[in-house]
Design a protein that fits this description.
With about 300 residues, this protein is α/β, with parallel strands linked by helices. It contains nine helices and nine strands. The strands form two sheets. It has a six-stranded mixed β-sheet, sandwiched between helices. Strands 7-8-9 form a three-stranded mixed β-sheet.
């Protein structure tokens, strides 16, 4: 490790659905954070690690979208996002190329103006906009905070990934390697499996049902030959009517969710997965602090 080795924590913040998880997955080169087009996809602060042996190590903190909390789960998610800023050596603020800066963005900007670390404005989804629109967006945002850098990217199309990494490295302090160079995340396989089931449900279910679900992995055991892992998990929902929707006619929806999750799990674990899903109703669990803790939504 060279004397010029850089290291530090980088918080990725922004409104829901601006592409924070997609960007983080792109940079580290592996899918760790789940993705969907629905708000509240990311609920926990997720830590991932990008390492270049001769240059530095970036520890990313992917956070829930910053939004007004509607319940105790929302309170937890907002605290996850805000606390990540206090832990960071660099903050990435992810926005879309627009000239309209709404109340949500203004609120984030107000918090970032108080930050004592470099803030990099990352304008995402540039593949969907013209250069003229991008220039107007940069002009609209450039004076809202004292940005260390402004970097346009497309997380979906892999545009300017290396440029963004270079900019982050420039603003990180000199420091040690916090994690082994082969480490990609400190999330356990069990935690990632839980999220892959929730991701499949987000993709398959409509309207408000996905927001009211949690997932508990009841058991996860690799068979003696090491070729198959047996996983049993329970999807928690808030209403009997939601349970019926999740199961579907003749169990069809639950089967579809299971198939989608199993495909992603097999990519992650590099082995066959035998997945069994169950559904349980726990009324108003998003308002119950005990339930939130049981389902993994409490401050560690």
């Amino acid at each position: 490790m060279s004397d010029n080795f850089k290291s530090g924590f980088v918080s990725i913040v922004g409104r829901p659905n601006v592409g924070k998880s997609t960007l983080m997955n792109l940079i580290i080169g592996q899918k760790i954070a789940i993705m969907s087009g629905k708000a509240q996809t990311t609920r926990n602060k997720i830590k991932t690690v990008y390492t270049e042996d001769d240059r530095g190590q970036i520890v990313f903190l992917d956070t829930p979208g910053i939004n007004k909390a509607k319940n105790k789960l929302g309170d937890f998610m907002l605290e996850e996002s805000l606390s990540s800023m206090d832990e960071a050596d660099v903050i990435l603020w992810l926005v879309e190329p627009t000239t309209y800066i709404g109340k949500g963005e203004q609120s984030i900007a107000e918090k970032l103006r108080k930050a004592k670390v470099p803030v990099i404005l990352v304008i995402n989804k540039i593949d969907a906009f013209t250069p003229e629109d991008l220039a107007k967006a940069i002009d609209a945002y450039k004076d809202i905070c004292d940005f260390a850098e402004i970097v346009p990217v497309s997380a979906l199309r892999n545009k300017n990934r290396e440029l963004l990494i270079d900019m982050i490295m420039q603003h990180l302090p000199a420091g040690p390697m916090y994690y082994d160079p082969d480490t990609v995340t400190d999330e356990t396989e069990r935690e990632i499996v839980k999220e892959l089931i929730r991701e499949a449900a987000l993709h398959k279910l409509d309207k408000e049902v996905p927001h009211g679900i949690a997932v508990v992995v009841d058991s996860m055991k690799v068979r003696p030959d090491g070729r198959i892992v047996d996983i049993e998990a329970t999807i928690i929902c808030e209403r009997d009517s939601h349970k019926g929707i999740i199961i579907g006619k003749g169990g069809s929806m639950l089967k579809n969710i299971g198939t989608g999750a199993r495909i992603e799990m097999e990519k992650l674990l590099d082995m066959k997965v035998n997945l069994k899903l169950f559904v349980k109703v726990r009324r108003d669990w998003r308002e119950n602090l005990g339930d939130l803790k049981d389902y993994g939504y409490s401050r560690k």
